[in-house]
## 1
Amino acid sequence: MSQDHHGARRVGQVKEVTSLSNPIVKDIKALANKKDRDETKSFMAEGLKLVIDALELGFEIKTLVYAKNVKDKPQVVQAATKTVARGGLVLEVSEKVLSSITRRDNPQMVVGIFTQRWTSLRDIRPKAGETYVALDRVRDPGNLGTIIRTADAAGASGVILIGETTDPYSMETVRATMGSVFALPLVKASPADFLAWKKGAGVSVVATHLAGAVDYRTIDYRKKPVVLLMGNEQQGLPDELAREADALARIPQAGLADSLNLAIATGIMLFEARRHLLTLEERE
């Protein structure tokens, strides 16, 4: 057993860390900043369920962190064994260190640091019956996380992020996806790249728009693979994207609210597109 001056000691393949000033702990804490996530192409997932999901879906794990009091749980032992087998580092830490890493008073007992996974837009070749979500400059981490989670639940095939969007790998967004961030391909694209891709992808782009002339329930979502194009929370869709859509849809609303939350609107559109496809499958 060896000990270093940063309050860490190595027990077999596991490094025990008790000090908040440990350089590895500092590096993990730095992942709260987008700049550090981008530079290291890493992100943090909190909770045993998310860590297991990520490992099962083949995400590359860099570091597994767990609280000393859960080290004997079979699933934690299994996750640690997988991490070591895949060349990752395993840290056993105090709850104080975990609180510091997750910025929570009641932290999850297990945290994983994983490599980000991005899909190239040119590798997205939509097939019949598939639905994608394209989000223009989505800014709210909670909205983005909820949309990724809902897209996964609705059987969508991927999420395309257009322009300057919030980071899907931020702690807040990953939390809000409840693990779905591992299940769906994520794509980054400029508006120009998205429009160029649309021309050759054989898709039907259905955009929600305040000036939308078509009730969203009357659109035929079954002719081609569908891309649901949703606008920014504050400004809606810019003209350059709206005019290229194959249909501009509106969701009829009652009451005083003049618009819906972006995640809610996207959920409504996703399940409507899905309903049409399921009806088609039932007929067949």
## 2
Amino acid sequence: MKWKPRNLRALANIVCGNDEYFHYRSSMYITEFFEDCDLEYEHDGSTRWMWVSERLEEVLAMPQPSQTVPPDAFIRVIQRVLDKAEADDDDPDRSKALEAINVVLAREGWQAFYDENKTAQLRHIATNRIAQVANPHRPLTPSELERREQLVSYVNKCSEDELIEEVLLPLFRQLGFHRITAAGHKDKALEYGKDMWMKFTLPTQHILYFGIQVKKGKLDASGKSTSNVAGIHNQITMMLGHEIFDPEISRRVLVDHAFIVAGGEITKQARNWIGTKLDATKRSQVMFMDRDDILNLFVVTNLPLPNGALPSPSSYDDLDDDIPF
């Protein structure tokens, strides 16, 4: 990422506390600020805003996961400078500080906001993507566990189409995939075993195409349920062997990888059964994503829950008529 010099200077002045609503930081506290951001920068006594501007430029030059996700260190800088603990009487909720920093961020295509945990986050304005690297294997916070339980109840009762539209589409968009198309909805011509297809742009600007086969329930390969997995195998084989039309480049392309996505568990037997039926080349193209993968990724990427997952007033027990008011 490369920012315009004037925007680097403006953000540096915010970090130094030269702007209203931000704590003033002398040389020692500037060093402490970067330590809090896990950056080993020590102020050398030179002009504060100029030195900070140079360090911010170095931070922005660090490797980034994608064009719409800045380096982790930069996200930590924004979170630190908007720390709610630094609120004062003139700006108790830090709304004025948020407004001030967003003037600078917007010029580079970003917007800061506070999430439900009162932690500052960054959003890419053009794609509406939240700038964070999702780690679905980390321990979930209590509020995240509560949201996960609400999502579990929704996935239990939703249809396959609702799983695609309300959960998978927003999830894959947030993860950086684009041109996401669902079969049977906007694109009636989609066929050959694909419920969805999408593309992902690598940092090298090369494009990978993904086909997705979605099943609402559990995928197993024992007893009668083997026929279900056999159907998935046939659809995956068709998916990998037929082209799709990409209207953005006006030509037909092959799917590079196939996702098998299930709203329930994908058992080890099912994975092994499909693996043994595919040749070595196609086996490397197939990826699995089951219920736990969907739930954890959806929660840690901080996506809004589907409407059906939110508790409604009618879901609460009626009050006892004998209770006096």
## 3
Amino acid sequence: MDLTLTLLLILFAVAMLAGWVDTLAGGGGLLTVPALLLAGLPPVSALATNKSQAILGTFTATATLFSKGHLRERTLILPVVTAGIGAGIGAWLIQRVDTSWLNWVIPLLLLGVALYVWLTPNMGSSEREGKMTEKQWALTSVPVVGFYDGAFGPGTGTFFAASGVAFRGQTLLTATIRAKLFNLTTNVVSLALFAAGGKVIWVIGGTMMVGQMLGAFIGSHTMLAGGTRLIRPLVITMCILMSLSQIAQHLGLVQIP
């Protein structure tokens, strides 16, 4: 693989777009992972390098939202911890068991989220009473999504946000904002395991980090400046695209790990 300036600029642009999309709706990995594979990275290195650049995007989004007065509740401590634990277990277990069944389960889950959001136009438009307490949610749904990110990955931010709306009665905006912090946690845990194995291509990762940071910064301000109307259609679109991507991969139509 030849690291040319043109290649790095293309990956920078892809990362910037992915950072914007990921901040608003999740699913940025649908853009960056295929781009890294097309650039010639081996599958494991593509996943590892993707985590390295995604972590700065989620960090930038989280830091920007924190600076605007969000993500300061003490109640976030427990779900952050359980998200990290779930991701660690997932990343450890994925290397030791057969998970081929996820190739069909995950697309169905993503399509289910898209269908639910599409059929409920007022989803998350206002707060309502949650079906779970914050503690119950932090000990069940959050570590499950964290486990999924450690073991698989696509759509993690979308799943965190959807669970916040469905089980905690949060608005879609609130759930999406909180999802940034949880996704940052799971990215940190996953990246630590990949980096320990020497799988990250840091030159490419560093270039894409800058793009992700810029895209996430723009996305955070888009969200806070009335861009919430974009979240719903983006969630639906990214869920469908991620689902089709996973099905195509399983059928051997594309080679995405």
## 4
Amino acid sequence: MIKKQLIMEKALELFAKQGFEATSVQQITDHCGISKGAFYLSFKSKDELILTLIDHFMMEITSDIDHIVKNSPNDQLLYDFYHKTYHYFYKHLDFAKMFMKEQTQSFNQEFIFKMRHYDKLHEKTILTMIERLYGEEVKHTKYDLIYCIKAFMKMYGELFFSQHVSVDFHLLAKSLVEKTNILAKHMTISFVTEEHSKMIEFEINEGVTKEQMVEILGQRMEEMEESIEKESLMLLKQQLIEPTLSPAIVKGLIENIQSHPHCKWIAFLLRDYFKSII
């Protein structure tokens, strides 16, 4: 196992049990069976490790959900959204517990900013899903519906994350699809308005610049062995620098990297960057 990956996995176990503040670098290195020097070769600080963990998990689920919203058929979309999200967090239960606990307890400003960033990305994806499914039917209530869906996710998640109960994801997803459809079709009074949505758009639409994307792709390519995913990244990087490929080829290259565990976030960023042509 790569040392950086080992540190992340072992640290996550401690963070889930003790929280960020109560876990020291010494405890992490003892749990990993490595020296502090080896730790600092991988991470500059505990804070950098924490933020790397958050990025690792949130990039993956954000990218997966974005892919579902863009590609699942309408009659399956809402079910796939709920099922995938719950299944992911249940599969990574240690992260889910840490994620839920630290959002309410942390005073680390960078952590708070990062979680806010991912939360806004999540809201944007939910809004896209709502508009695709219900269209003009929810014109005046769709922003409120975003928060209803987020509340479903949080409260039902807390129920089984805290009690370690066996989960029937199929039944849970079907139940929430029914509830969401009822709200979408019958809700008439909206508290959250379009004004709130403009604030959301303002906060998350700054996006990643072309130069930043080129740098991100270059860094990721250096970390990867020769593969079709690495070759796809190379072609996408060249497309950013000097566009020559057709939209269909660009879309295919992004799909090539979508399933690679270390490229999910890059696929999400590229889809957003190239959205006008694909």
